[in-house]
From TrEMBL:
Annotated Glycosyltransferase 2-like domain residues: 8-147
UniProt similarity note: Belongs to the glycosyltransferase 2 family.
GO MF assignments: transferase activity
Protein name: Glycosyltransferase involved in cell wall biosynthesis
UniProt KW keywords: Transferase
Length: 242
């Protein structure tokens, strides 16, 4: 793929040495930069990553949480487009082309969704799916968006919009914060179908109740800041949502 824009992929990881060979094998050859944000791993995460990709840029996380890691990775990114994927094998790097295509064709923010045609999940539980749908519906009601999948971490965006989102949270609620602030900033958002796979090795750090509560507080806090309603949908096609 020949692109006029450079691509950075940001991968937050903590103790994911067993999963990285699979994750990195799915990354397209045409991406320009891979940033691994290491959450002070106690296994060989960094050594394995560097062996797999000698050109890797490693950032050591100074705080805690997925949001903190992603913000550090975004700050270090040099690409015109930033893609965020997980290090556990749940997000497929072979889908990056779909996200980049949406951005090249006019979107400001390409948002992965497991609930649009072509998307799906092999991992999400009934409880997590129900909670996600409730939180997605609440967000749509409060902010005038038409999201189908609020709590999913596979996204891509033009780096020039980082300042507009002004990200400032530490945990898994980072995904919700990005979606809300992107919409409130008037960015053109397009949902992209994505299939979530099961974690390959290890156990997830996600806790449905605890992290769901943090997402809910984020939704309400942002609304209480008095932000204006999202702009009317643009004409990017059936998947354009704000």
């Amino acid at each position: 793929m020949k692109l006029s824009a450079s691509i950075t992929v940001v991968v937050p990881a903590m103790n994911e040495a067993e999963n990285l060979p699979h994750v990195f094998a799915t990354l397209p050859s045409w991406i320009d930069e891979v940033i691994l944000v290491d959450g002070n791993s106690t296994d060989d995460t960094v050594a394995v990553a560097r062996r797999l990709r000698p050109d890797l840029h490693v950032v050591t996380q100074t705080g805690r949480g997925k949001g903190n890691a992603l913000i550090a990775g975004f700050a270090a990114a040099k690409g015109d487009i930033i893609v965020m994927i997980d290090a556990d094998g749940s997000t497929d790097g072979r889908e990056i082309g779909l996200f980049v295509e949406a951005l090249i064709e006019g979107a400001d923010f390409a948002k992965g969704s497991r609930y649009v045609p072509g998307g799906g999940s092999s991992d999400i539980s009934v409880v997590r799916s129900f909670g996600n749908r409730v939180l997605t519906g609440l967000t749509n009601m409060l902010y005038g968006t038409r999201y189908t999948d609020l709590c999913y971490g596979y996204n891509a965006f033009w780096a020039r919009h980082l300042d507009a989102m002004a990200l400032d949270c530490d945990g898994f609620e980072i995904e919700t914060l990005m979606n809300v602030r992107a919409s409130q900033a008037g960015l053109l958002i397009q949902e992209v179908p994505s299939h979530e796979h099961c974690r390959i090795h290890g156990e997830s750090n996600l806790h449905a109740v605890r992290d769901g509560w943090r997402v809910l507080k984020t939704i309400l806090r942002e609304r209480n800041r008095g932000l204006v309603a999202a702009p009317a949908p643009s004409s990017l096609g059936s998947c354009a949502i704000s």
